[in-house]
Amino acid sequence: MSEYEVICVEYAGAKFSITTFGGHLLTYIPPNQSSDILWCSSCHKKDMSKSIRGGVPVCFPQFGHVHDKISPQHGWARLQKWTLLESTERSVTMTITSAENQKPGRPDGGMWPANEGCPYRARLTLTVSLTDLGALSYVMKIKNESSVSMPYQMLFHNYFSVHAEAEDFGVSGLSGYEAIDTQPRGREGMGMDYGTQGEGKIVVDGEVDRIFHGKGPVLASIARGGGEGEISVEVTAEPAKNVSCVVWNPYVEKAKGMGDFDDDGWKGMICVEPGLIDGLQMLVGGEEQILKQVIKFSK
Ligand SMILES: O=P(O)(O)OC[C@H]1O[C@H](O)[C@H](O)[C@@H](O)[C@@H]1O
């Protein structure tokens, strides 16, 4: 990681670490805990040729692939070097602009047109901090620095450390959301429509890869299983927008097929990923959009 900085913060009994590679949050240990509640693969790529498999990668300017298939899955923001703006006793702020990715000879920024003539200019500014009670606040601001409206999507790809096979494991808080399978295994490759999510917890009994579209903010909670407490993720957008949430666990076969994923790593993780991904989002020239998540742990 030599060309990338790793910044460690300890405040109110809690700790986090973050790197300038991808503006990637690596670890978060809540107050009075000895272990990380974020999960990271033991065999993730250490040469930065891929996004780190764990912690919190950010997906921007799109979630998933776009039609050209040349643009990187989940966008460029998680693959580039961010600039450290400020580091205080309880917070770290980093930034990146799309201009830094408009290099000759490569497609620019996912869903956006190739660099030459690309009219969009985005600045992302991420501030991660610890609250007085040691909760983790993660705030992303997108500014459209161009004069034209800019299409985008953004998502926080949180990997949490859990016991996915335990009876007391499960994700709740998404009841009433419209659930769609992200994989093309449903009707004619359009994704399977699961209908409205019921009251039950989401568990891992096979590959789980679903998008939940809701109306308004998100408050999801994850019972970690094995009596290891509960994580809550509270997400708000300013100005207000509908926040969606992806829940992902690759299960046995897909985990084995990924070179940077431990074969049985699926047993120890769940991704709960809030984002602005209900269709294309538009940001007017000169305007800002904030998406914020607060992660808390209770035993
Ligand atoms: O392997 P990555 O590009 O990091 O993507 C990891 C996963 O991200 C999301 O959760 C998607 O819904 C999954 O379909 C995808 O497999």
From TrEMBL:
Its EC number is 5.1.3.15. Signal peptide: none annotated. GO terms for molecular function: carbohydrate binding; glucose-6-phosphate 1-epimerase activity. The keyword Nucleotide-binding does not apply. The active site is at residues 157, 273. The keyword Iron-sulfur does not apply. Pfam families: Aldose_epim (PF01263). Belongs to the glucose-6-phosphate 1-epimerase family. This is glucose-6-phosphate 1-epimerase. It comes from Triparma columacea.
